[in-house]
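[Meeting: bench + compute handoff]

Bench side (C.D.) handed over the final construct sequence. Compute side (W.E.) agreed to return the predicted structure before the next meeting so the bench team could plan truncations. Sequence as handed over:
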Amino acid sequence: MIVSSRPTAPSGQDLTSAQQQLYDWLAQFIQQHRHSPSIRQMMEAMGLRSPAPIQSRLRHLQQKGWITWQEGQARTLQLLGPASAGGIPVLGSVAAGGLIETFDDVHERLDLTPLLDTRGLFALTVNGDSMVDAHIDDGDIVLMEPVSDPARLRPGTIVAAHVAGSGTTLKHFSCKGGKVRLEAANPAYAPIELEAEQVTVQGRMVAVWRQVAATSRP
């Protein structure tokens, strides 16, 4: 995903030069490293010796609708710049078995704007094979939408769930009678059952991004 370094203000509010400088640097850092930087890294990049100016700029960026951020947790920072418009052309079908007629015209366009415009959308890199039967492999990137009320999630929704004292996992989620069940999409992994208060749903999966390496065969 390419993040524009100077997008139109999402809320229509312009930035000060200091806020724009930080936003531009954040966009470049996140595009390169695929995660948000620490406050210390921001301080060093802006040539500051105190975290206070950085935190002030982040608060203003959030108030103006440019980022989402949980104060005191720099790694939760996500950019909210607008997605590119126009969509990706769908040129037809491609066979995975026999041959079919080749592309001849643009039949429709795949519009990713509604997805990428989702407020607070963030990405996580998958580590492990517990979701392979859901077609989510090690190294894939999952796009996640924040969840305001986990109780309204449909049983079986794939979520990023944080378990207190253990970390975060990508699993099928269900909740009943004060109990949460986190179920893998791989029979090699047993379901995890916990009290609801032990689990924080950080996001609901909305898409999977897989970068396919080019290979050549003799």
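W.E. noted at the follow-up: Confidence is low (pLDDT under 50) at residues 1-9, 82-86. C.D. will use this when planning the next construct.
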